[in-house]
Fold these 4 entries.
Entry 1:
Amino acid sequence: MEPVFQANLILSTLLFTIGVLGVMWKRNAISLFMSVELMLNAANLAFVTFAFQLGLLSGGILVLFIMTVAAAEAGVGLAIFIALFRVHRHIRVDEQDMLRG
Amino acid sequence: MDSSLPVQAYVPEIHPTGLIPFLLLLLGGIACLVVDAATGKEGSRRYLPWIAGGTLLASITCFFLRLVPGEVFLEDTFRADAFGQLASIIILASTFVMTTMGPSLVRRRNLPSGEFYTLILFASLGMTLLAISNELLTAFISLEVFALSLYVLVGIDRRSRKAAEACFKYFVLGAFASAFLVFGIAFLYGAAHTTFLTEMAEVFRQGYVESVGPEGAVTEIPVNTMYVFVGFAFMFVGICFKLSLAPFHMWAPDVYQGGNMPAVMVVATASKVAAFAFLVHLVEALSYWQGFASGAVYIVTAVAVVSMLWGNLAALVQTNFRRMMAFSSVAHSGYMTVGILVLVALPGLMSGAELEAGQLLIRQAVILYMAGYTVMNILAFGVAYYIGGGGHMAAYRGLVYRRPLPAAGMAIAMFSLVGIGFTPPTIGFMGKFYIFKEAVQVGFVGIAVIALLASVISAFYYLNLVVTMFMRAETKPAEAPLAGTPEAPVQVGGELLARVVLVTACVLIFVFGIFPQLFIGLGETLVNGAVR
Amino acid sequence: MITPSNLLAYTPIEQAYLPVLVMLVIALGFCAVVLILSPLIMKGKPSDAKLEPYECGIPTVGTARIQVFVRFYLVALLFLLFDIEIVYIIIWALAMTHAENAQVPGFVAFSMIVMVFYVVVLLVGLLYEWKKGALNWN
C-alpha cells in the first residue's frame, strides 16, 4: 500500500506542477483556465490519496466540495472571458496591457 | 457488500443564534434577487440599496447584541473569538460603505443593480465566514464565495474595457491562488488527519496522530514535518495573493486602476481583513508544531520585508492615485505580516498562560491595525470617489481651494497612512506602534527597523499628494478635462450619507488613535469578557 | 465496518487495476493492427473524393475553425452549475434512505429541512435567470 500512496502523491504533485507551468506559459485564457482546473484536480487527488492512506472518509467529502467550487469558478470564469471577448474581441493574455502606471 | 455505514449519522448541534447574522446576509442577498426580478429596473434601483444596507446594518447589530457565541460553534466549524468578531464587524462596515456608494455608481454607469447589491451581500457573507472559520474547507469555500463575488463586482461595468481587463486579471490570478490554497490544505490534512484548526493545534502540540487501524488497533502516527511545511508554504502563497503581499501582488495595481472605485475599496479593505483574520487563526494553530518556527520564520520574514520595501518604493514613482494606493496597500499588508511573524515565533519562546497572553496581545495589535487600515482606506477611496477624482493626480491639484472639506479628509487619511511622527496620534500610528512593539519585544529588532524605514519612505508619496492638493491649479480648473468621463463628480443623491460616512471615518481615525483600548475593549465586551 | 483503508485491502492493487491494464493492451493492440495492416492489404487508387475527410457523407462546407455562437457558452454555463448540484442530492438521498440512519431520532427531519433550504436557494437562482431571460434563446 505504501508505494501506491507515494506514487499517487508524486502524480498529484506532477499534475500540480504541470498546471502551474501551464498558467505561466499559456497565452490563451481558456488554456490558462484549464491549467488552473488541473491544479485543483491535483489537489483533489492528494485529498483522496491521504484519505485512503489514513482510513478517513472526510478527504473524499472534501473532494466533492472542491469539485463544486471548481464548477462555480468555471461558470464565473467563462462569463468573464465572454465579457472580455465582447469588449476586446480576443482573449489573448499577453495583449491585455491597457492598465499601466 | 456490508450494509453497515462507515459513519453513524447524527443530527449536528446548530447554535440557534450564532448563525443569525450570516443567515441574514444570505437571505438578504436572495431577497435582493427576488425583488430585482419582481420589480423593474427603476424599482430595483429604488428598493435594493435599502434592502442591502438594512441587511448589513442588521447583521452588524447581531454582533453587538452578542448573538454570536464567543467560542467555537456549529460543530467547531466556526470560532468567533473577539478577534474574529471585530474582523467581521470591520468587513460589514466596509461593505456597508460600498452599499452607500452604490446608488450613484449604478445610476452613473447604468449598471444592473440586482447583481450589484446581491453580490455585495454574498461577498460580505463569504468574508465574515472566512474571518471566523475554524475549518479549512469552510475557509476555502467562504474564500471562494467572496472571491467570485468580488471578481464580478470589479468587472460589473461591462462597457468599460479597463474594468474587463482588471476583472480578467483578478480572476485568473485569484483562481491560480485558490488552487495553491487547496493544494496546501490537502497536505495539511495529510499531516494532521483533520481540517479543524483547533484539532490541528492539538495534534501539533502532542506531535502525533492517534489512528485507529482496520482491526481496531490504535497506533500513533508521528506528524510528517514535510507535509506541514509543504502545506503551510502552499497555503501561505495562496493567501499572499489575496493579501497582495509582495512577490504575489502583480494583480493589485491593475485591479485598483481598472475596477470601479467602490469595489476596489472593498477589495482593498474587507477582503484583506478577512484573509488576514484567517491567516492569523491558521498560523496560530500551526505554530504549535515544534519545528514550525525554524522554517516558517524565513518565509514570512522574506514576504514581509519584500512587501514593505517594494510596496513603498514602487508607490514612490506612481503617477496614478489608484496605483499608488495599490502599492501602499502592498506595504500595509507587509506591516501586518510582521504581526504574523511574531505569532509564528511565539510558541518557541514561551508556553502556557504566558503564551496565550502573548497571542492575545498580537491578535489585538493586528485587529487594531486592520481597523485602522480599513478606516483610512475607506476615507481615502471615499473622498476620491465623491470628488470624482479617480486616478489622475491632476485632479487633486488645488483641491483645497475648490472643495476644502474633502481635501481635509484626504489629508487626514494620508497623515494617518504614514502613521509615524505626527500628533495627535492617529489610528494608523497606534496600529503600527503596537505591532512593532510586539516585534521588538520578541526580538525582531531588525524587522522593526526595516518597517520604520519603510514608513519613512512612505511619507514621501503620501505627503506628496497632500502637497499636490495645496498647489494652485495652473491654467484652468481640473474638472474641465474630467467632465463626462467615468470619474466625473457625483451629482445624484447620496451626498448627505456620503458626508456622514466620511466624517465618521475621520472621527474614528482620531478616537481610536487616542483611545485604542476602546476598540480592543469592544471586542472583549462582544464575547462577554471571555478572552478566547 | 467499511472504511476506505479496508476497502482497498479487500482487493490488492495489482488485481484492482488488472482490467484497466487488459483494456489498455487490447485497445493499443487493435489500433496498431489496424494501422499497420490496412496499408499492407489495400490497393492505392486515390481520388479527390476518397482523400476528403469523412464526416457523414454530406459534402464538406467551409472551414472547421468557426466561432461558436456565444449563447452556447451561456447554456453550457447554466447546465454546469445546475448539473453539479446533483452531487449533493444523490449523497443526501442515499444517506437519508439508509435503514440505520432513518432510525436516528431527528435525522430525517433535519436532513429534510436542510434539503428544502438548499432546493429553495437553487430555485430562486433558476427563477432569477428565467426572469432575466437567460433561458431565452433569442
Entry 2:
Amino acid sequence: MIQYYFQLQIKILSRQLKAFGLNPILGLIFGPIFFVLLSWFIFQKLAFSEFIYPLIPIYIIHMSGNHLKTRFLKSYFSSRQCTMISLVQNISITVPFIIFILYKQEFTIAAILFLMPIVLAILNPVLRCQTKIPSPFSKLPFEFPIGFRKSLLIYSVAFIILIISIQVENFNLGIVVLGMTLLIPLGFYSYIEPKYYVMIFNDNPSQFLWRKIKTGLLFSMFFSLPVSIFLSIWYPSVCLIIIAVNVIGLILLLISIIAKYSSYPKSMSIVDSIMLAISILIPPLLLITIPRLYKKSVIQLKPILG
Amino acid sequence: MIHIQHLTKSFGKKEVLKDIELSLDKGMVYGIVGINGAGKTTLFNCIAGLEEYAGKIDSDITDLKNCTGILHTDPYFFDMLTAREYLTLICHARHLQLPDFNQKNIFNLPLDEYASLYSTGMKKKLALTGILIQQNEFYILDEPFNGVDIQSNIVITKIIHKLKSLDRTVLISSHIFSTLSKVCDIIFVLENNRIMKEVNRGNFDQLEADIIESTVGKDIDLLMQ
C-alpha cells in the first residue's frame, strides 16, 4: 500500500510538471542538471553557503506537510506506516542535498542533515498538533500568523544559531540568522489562496497589493529588526552589511508578493519564473521586472477586485 | 434591485449557464433549485465576481461586489488560522471596525481553535457568521442548511427571515425543498443551463409535486422493478 502511495505521488508530480508547462521526461533529465547548477551557484556566489544550503531541504520538509495531509494519511495508514511515509519523503528531499554537501567535503553538516529527516518525521506531527500556537501576527491575518506557526521550528533554530554566533563571536553566523529571518517570510507567499480570499477585499488592485506589501514588509521586520539591532551592537563596524542584507531581504519579499499575484489565480509560468530568476541574478534587471510584475498583478486582480 | 442579464458561462467548450435572466428585489428571498451539476454554484460564483462570465449584472446597490456576502457549500479555511483570525481578516478586508467577536458568536463556536479543524457544520456556521458581521446588502447562500445541526437550521431560517425584514436581498440554493419553501418568496428552477421556471410562494406545492413527478418517481419505479 505504501508503494502505491508513492506511485501516486510520482503521478501527481508528473501532472504538476505538465501544469507548469514542462514535459515530465524533460523534467527528469533537466531537473538534476538544474539542481546541480543551482547548488553550484549557491556555493560559488553566496557567502555562508555551507550554512544556508542545508537549511533549504529542512525548510522544504517543514513546509510540505499540513493537517489535511496528515489526517488523510492517518485515516488510511497505521501510525508506523505514517512515520515511514514521512521518513521516506524527508529522505528523498534531503538525499540530493547531502550528496552535494559530501561533494563539497562538508562532512559534519552532511551528517547533521542526514539526521534531520528522522528528527523532522517525529517533530513535525507534534508541531502540527491541534493545540493553537500563539502568534504575534494575529491582528493582521493571514500570511504571517499561519507562516509563523508553520515556521516556528525554523525560527527557533535561527535564534539558537544567533546565540551561538554571539557566544563564539562569529559575525558570519549572525548574518546567516539575519538572512534566515528575512528569507523565511518569502515562503509565506508561496501559497495561492482561493479567489474568495481576494474577492472579500474592498480595495482596488493597487490598494490590495500595497496592503499586502506593507503588511509583509512590516511583519518581516518584526524578526529581522531585533536581529539587526543585536548584530549592530555587537559588530558596529559592519553596520552597512547588516543594512544591505535587510534591504535585499525586503526587496525579495516585495518581489515574491507581486510575483504571486502576477499570474493569480494560477501559479507563475515557467517563462516568468526564469525571467524572475535571471533578474535576481542580475539586479539591475529588477528595475524592469518589478514594475512589469506589478502591472501584471494589477491586470490579474482586476476581474476579481474590480 | 439586482438585474442579471444574458449571463452566460462556459468552461472551455462546455456551456454551463446560458442566457440567464434574473431580477432580484430588495427585501426578497429567492431560491434556486436544480439537479447536481445544474450550474447553481457556478451561477453564484459569477454573481459574486468569483468567475468571469459573459453578460451583465446591474444593480442600484452602489459597489455591489463589496456589499455581497457569499456562503459556499464547503467553505475553505486556511490551515493553522484560528476562527477569530478568520473573522478579523473578513473585517479588515472590508475596512470594518473589529466588533466583539464573542458577542457576535451566536453559534457558540470555539473561536480560538483552528477553523480548518472544525466539522463541516461548524465551518459553515463560521463562514455565515463572517458574512453576517460584514453587514452586506446581498447574501448568496449556497446550501446553507447542509451539514448543520437541527438547532442551527432553525437559527439559519430565523436569520434569513431577519435579513428579509432588514430589506436585504437573499439568494439561496438548497436540495431540501421544505426549508426552501419555508424561507423563499420566489423559487427559480435551473434546468438545461437556463432558468426554466419562476415560481411564486403560492405555487410551491405544485413545484414540489412537479419535481417529484419528473425525477424521483420514474427512477424509483425502474429501480424497484
Entry 3:
Amino acid sequence: MGPRPLEGIRVADFGWIYAVPHATAWLGALGADVIRIETSGAPDLVRFLSGTDGLIGANRSGVFHAINSSRRSIALNLAMPEAQEIARKIIRQSDFVTENFTVGNMAKYHLAYDDLVKVKPDIIMLSGTPLGQDGPFARTVGFGPTTQAFAGLCHITGYPDSFPCGIGGTWPDFAVGTGMVFFLLAALHYRDRTGQGQYLDLSMAEMVTTMMPEAMMDFLMNGRDQAGIGNRDESMAPHGVFPVAGDDKWIAIAIATDDEFVKLCDALGVSSMASDVKFARLIGRLANVEELEREIAARTRVHLRDELVTKLRARGLAAGPVYSTPELMKDPGFSESSMLVKLQHGEVGERVVPGLPVRFGAIDLDYRGAPMIGEHTDEVMSGLLGYSAAEIARLKEARVLI
Amino acid sequence: MARFEDYQEPPRALEGLKVVELPCLDTMPFMAASMAAKSFADFGAEVVKVEPPRTGLQERALGPFRDELPDPETGGLHLYLNANKLGVTIDLENLRGRELAFDLLASADIVFNPNRPELNEKLGIDWRTLTARFPGLIAVSITFFGAESRYRNLRGGDLVATHMSGVGYETPWHQVTDPENQPPLKLGGRQSDYLTGYTAAAAAMCALYSRKTNGAGQHVDVGQWFSMISMVRPNLGFYSHEAPDSPSFQRLSTRLKRAAQWVYPCKDGWVSFNAGTDRFWRGAKKAMGHPGWMNSELFDTILGRAEHIDAIEAGVIDWLSTQTRTEAFEKAQAEHVPCFPVHSPAEVADNEQYKARKFFIEIEHPAAREVRMPGAPCKFSRTPWRIVRGAPRLGEHNHKILGERIGRSQAELESLAAAGII
C-alpha cells in the first residue's frame, strides 16, 4: 500500500483526558510519530479510570487504552527547566504541538506558541480549552460536561417542559477531538504550500455552538429561545423512543413522510390510524403529537424489540434498537466491523480497543497499543535527541525524567 | 502568547481544493454532507453544492424562517450551512444530469455523497464507479450505517444513530428518576448529523494526505452510526475489560441515577458541576465554605465518594439552592473546580465570552439582508475561518460552473433547463 499518509510527521503531544488524545490517536494511526509528553508526577487522571480487571495502576485502565493508541510516551517533569529544554528539543523536530491544559499552563513551562516559534518557526500548535485562549472567562477550569452546559446544548436537550439534561459520552470531548484532526491537517496543508505554520485556538464551547444551528439561528433570526423537545423533531412525526416488551427496553422510530406512516401503521396492525384525519398528514401528526405517541406506544409495547425492528426495517422505515454500550457490543453489525481492534500492551497484554470510526479504501492504519507511562523515555532521549546513557541516567537521578 | 494578526485579506488554508457536495435524496433530513462541505468551504476550498432542481435541498425547507414565513432562500439552516458554497442544480436521476455531475467530478479533489449504497448503485454514482472513473478522486460515502456493513442499505438518521450508539441511553446523564416516563433521550438539534460531517471532513483530509504520498484517490467510508459510537469510546474500553460484578460496572451500567450527575439546579437556573477527583473535592470544600458534613472520612477517596454519591449530591444540591448560577460559577472557579452555568441559546448569543472572542458573525445576504450566525469552530492565527459569500440562491452558479467551467453551451443549458434537468 506504500507509505502511510503522515509518515515523517511528528507530534509533540501534551494532550490529556479525552479530546486531544483522541485527535492524536487519528494522527498516529495515519503514521505520524506521536510523542506523548507526560509525567508520573501528575499523570493523566484517565490512567486511573476503570476497566482494569479490578487492579489499579497507571498502566491498567481500559479507558486509557481505548483512547491512547498509536503513540510513544516520554515522562518529563515539566516543572524543571531542564525538562522544558528537552521538550523544546522534541518540538524542534516536530510538525505539530498539541495541548489541552488550562490557559496559561504552557506559558508557565515556557512552551507557549511565542516560545516555540523561536525554536521551530513553522510549528503548528493547537490549544484546546473549554472557552478559548482569551476573553473574560478564558482561565476557567472545565471539561466536556461543563462545556455542554456553557454552550447551550444542555438547555436544548431535555424532555418537553422539563429540566436541562447532561449528555452521555462526556460529550463533546470526542466530537471536538475529531474536529481537531481536520483543523490540524488543514493547517499542515497550508504549511505544505507556503512553508508557514500557525497557532490554532480552539474553544470547545464555540465548536459545540457551531453544531446547534437550528436553535441558534432561531434565536438570532426570530428571538425565540428554544428548549428541549425530547426525542421529537419539528419536521417529522412520530419521531421518538417507544417502549417495547421487557424492563426499560425501547425502540427508536423516525417517520418522515405520510407514506412511511402508512407502512408503520400496517406493521403495528393499526391501519385505521393511517386514515384517521388527525394523523394521516404530517401537519396533523405534529399538531396531535402527544396523542399520536400514546397510540404508537400502546402498540409497540406488546412487541419484542428486535422483532419489531426487523419488521419496520423490512418496510424500509428508519427504526433501531435503543442500546446500552454492552448491548451495542453484541450487535453483529458492530462486532464484525473494523472498529474494534486487538492491540498488545506492555503491562496487561492483549487489549480490545476502538479504532477509527471510518474506513479507508487504501490506507493501512497503524494501530499500536497505548504506551505505559514513560515507556519510550530512553528511546526518545537517545534515538531522537542523541543523549548518552550516562546523561539519561543523570537526568533520571535528578528527577527530570520521571 | 501569539495573537491573531489583523490582515486585510488573510489567505485561507484550503484555497485551491475543489469539493463537490452531492444531495441527499432520502426523505429523512441528513445534514452531514452539508456540514462536511461547509468545513472545507469556510477554510477556503471551492465547494460546489449540487441540489435537485426546483425543490432544492432539504435544509431550504426546514427553516427556521424569519417570522415563520417559509422561503427557500432565507431559511436559517440554509444560510448557515451553505454560506461560501457555489450552488448548481442537477437532477441526478436523469442520465443527462449525471453526465453533468461526472464532468464536474473530473476536476474535483473530493466528493461527499450522502446516499445509501443501493440508491448510488441504481444511479451509477456508487464509490466503485466513481473511483474507477476518476483515479485521483477522494470519494467520501456518508451513509447512515457505513457503505459496506450488513446494515448499509437501512435507513437511519440522527434519532436512530444516537440511540443505537449508546449515547442516547446515557442521556440524560444520571438524572433519571422515573424510567418509564423518561426514555433515553436524543441530543438537542441534529448533533449526530453535524458530528458525522466533522468526521467526514477529518477523514477526507486524511485521504488527501494519502494522495500526497502516491497521487491516488480512494474511497472513504463514513457511517453516522460508527461516528456516534466513537463518542462512547471510554465505554468500549471499560466494558471490554471490567468484570460484570465489579462495583463500577454495577454503578455505570444503569441509566438510573447511580453515578454522579452533571447538571444540578441552583437558585436561578442550573449549573454543570463536578467535584469527582481528589483535587476538585478539596476545592469544592473550600468553595462551599467547609460545611461539617464534608469532613466525613467516608468521602476521602474517589471510591468512597462514589459509594456515598447520594449523600454528596444532597449536600451539593443543598448548597447550590442558596447560590445563583453566577455565584456558584465564581466560587467554584476561584478554587479551580469545574462549574459552568447552563445557558440557553439566547444567553449564549449574549454571553461576554463569546462576544469578546467575536464568535458570532454578521453577513450581508441579498435575499435575507443582514444575518447573524455562529462563526469559527477553531481560530487559525494565519488563515482564519471566514465567510466571503452568502449561501447561493437555487441554481445561482449554473451558468458559471456548468457553462464556463465544464463548457456547456448556452443553448445546451437552456435545453437542460427546459427538460427540468437543471
Entry 4:
Amino acid sequence: MRDWEGVVRGKLAGMELEADERGEVIEELAAHFDETCSELCRQGMTEEAAAEVALSQVKDWRELRRRIQSAKTKEDDMSNRVKQLWLPSLVTLVLSMGLLALIQIFGPKPWLFGWNGSSRWPFVAPALMVYVPWLLSLPLIGAMGAYLSNRAGGSRRAVLSSVVFPVLPYLAFFVLALPVVAILNDHIAHNIMSRALFVGLFAWVLAPGAALLAGGWPAQLFLSRRLHSKRVVSN
Amino acid sequence: MIGAGIKRGTAELAVLSILEDGPLHGYEMARRIEEQTKGALRFTLAALYPMLYRMEQRGWIRGAWEVSPSGRRKRCYRLTPTGKKKLLPLRQEWSELFQALRMLKKVSHA
C-alpha cells in the first residue's frame, strides 16, 4: 500500500500554513487518494494504475498548494495576484525603463542601423537603435522578476508574464496603436510604415523580450527545480 | 466554456445541497454528487478541497475529524446554520437564472 501521506507531503512541500493545519490538510488529501485508489482497485484496476489515475486528479500541485493556502489563510485572489504578478511586473518595468533612461542620458551612444544608406545620408528611416548596455542588463532584470514572482508562489504563466512585462506596452503599441494611427493620420509616411513597424517590433519588443527571457526563463527553471528537490528531500 | 464564476457558484450549491442530507467527508461528497448528477458534476481532488476550505472559512460548513469503521481518520463536513441560511437564496438565484435562460428561445433550443 502506497504511503499517500508521504506523497502529498512531498508534493505540497513549502505550503505556508501552521504545522497542525498543514498536517491536517496532508492527512485529508492522503485519505482521499487512498479511497480513490481502493475504489479503483475494487473495480479491477492494478494498484499501480489506480495510483496513477488518482494522482491525475491534480494537474498542477503548485497551483493546488497556492489555492489551499489562499483558502485557508483567507487571502483573497486579488492580493495573491498583486504579489505574484503585478508587483514583480512593476519592478521589472521600473528597473528596465529607469535603466534605459539613465543609459540614454549618461551611457554610450546607441548602435544605429539603417536602410538604403549612402555616403551623404548613412541612415534612411526607419533606423534601428540598439542600446547595447541596456540589452545586456535585461537578463538580470528578467531573472529578478522571475525570482519575485516565484517566491510569491506565482504560476509559470505569472512568472513569465512578470519577466516580459516591460515589453508588453511596446507590443500593444506596435500591434494595435501604430496601425490605427497610420490609418487615421494622413501625416504619417505610409511608404515606410510596414518597415517601421517591424523595426520597432524588433528593437523594442523582440530583442528586449528575448533578453528578459534569457535571464527570466533559466531563473524560473532553476527555482522550480530547487522547489522540486526540496520536495524530494522532504519525502 | 462555462465561466469560473458560474462553475464556482454551481459547485458551492452542489456541496451545500449534498451536505443538507447529513455530514460527509470529501471523497464521499464528490462520489455522491457525481452519482446524483449522473456524472454531469464531477469534482477532482484539486477542485474540491480548496473550495471546501474556502467555504469553511466563510462559515458555511464545518469540518471535524471522525474515525471510520476501518479505523482511518476522516474529516467530515456538516452544514452550519450560516450555510443553511445561504442555501435557500443560493438555490433561488440559480433557479431564477435557469428559468431566465429557458425563456430565451435560443438557449432552450441549444
